[in-house]
Amino acid sequence: MNIALKAPPIPDCNVPAYSPSGQECALFESAWTRQLPLLLKGPTGCGKTRFVAHMAAKLGLPLSTVSCHDDLAAADLTGRYLLKGGDTVWVDGPLTRAVREGGICYLDEIVEARKDVAVVLHPLTDDRRVLPLERTGELLEAPPGFMLVVSYNPGYQNLLKTLKPSTRQRFVAIEFDFLPRDREIAVVSEESGLAESRVAPLVDLAHRLRSLKGHDLEEGVSTRLIVYCASLVDSGVTLRDAVLATMIEPLTDEPDVKAALIEIADAVIRQG
Ligand SMILES: Nc1ncnc2c1ncn2[C@@H]1O[C@H](COP(=O)(O)OP(=O)(O)OP(=O)(O)O)[C@@H](O)[C@H]1O
């Protein structure tokens, strides 16, 4: 069923800034209009969370974000009975709240969650669009505005932590990656306040370090870390100290790898 959904006009100043890398904004809006759930894949710190926040604000929808972890169970999303002043009261979890409100529920790093989470997501992510609450006996029908968005980082996957095809194939999926050089420079400059000419060597260094992913490093430098670095430099921290604290220390604890990264950083800083 296609119910015509229309986003209310939202003043731009209330929308978190997001620089698109392709057609993802149009795709998100179409998926929301057609009541389809969305899966975002991509490395840490490349803009997935910002994208969802941007789209939720643009569409004028409430957003509940949950960072999944290996202890997160279905009841953490749906809700549970709690003792309150001698009474036992049902308290909705973030997923139930989003279904009742007709908003967006964003489950970050969904592969980390416990297996029983998939059981509650399945009837919500096919054409039934229902959330059964066993404990209260309710069967909530998701209103047209409700949308489920999940994300994961394929780089962290291992055999024990993957999405089953029966779960993956319920979602429209978008692959994310870091922005091209000039766009990433513009975003980091915008986010940190540091001039683009001073951000450029930081982005070039990030590119060098990203090329080591899979060899010496599990993950490359995220856009988030470049923003941290540029923000520290903008606050007066020296370039080398800022690079060390944001683009090298968070990446590795291995002394040999660290020494190699510092050598690369020093070379890029000298050129910049
Ligand atoms: N396309 C973009 N437009 C605007 N800002 C961006 C963009 N990409 C990254 N950023 C910046 O990078 C930061 C980190 O991005 P974000 O938190 O969205 O990453 P993520 O992909 O959700 O990471 P994780 O998987 O670790 O949750 C943002 O707070 C923002 O400053």
Automatic annotation (TrEMBL):
Belongs to the CbbQ/NirQ/NorQ/GpvN family. Keywords: ATP-binding, Nucleotide-binding. The keyword ATP-binding applies. This is Nitric oxide reductase NorQ protein. Residues 184-268 form the CbbQ/NirQ/NorQ C-terminal domain. It comes from the Bacteria. InterPro entries: ATPase_dyneun-rel_AAA (IPR011704), CbbQ/NirQ/NorQ/GpvN (IPR050764), CbbQ_C (IPR013615), P-loop_NTPase (IPR027417). Pfam families: AAA_5 (PF07728), CbbQ_C (PF08406). Signal peptide: none annotated. Residues 37-171 form the ATPase dynein-related AAA domain.
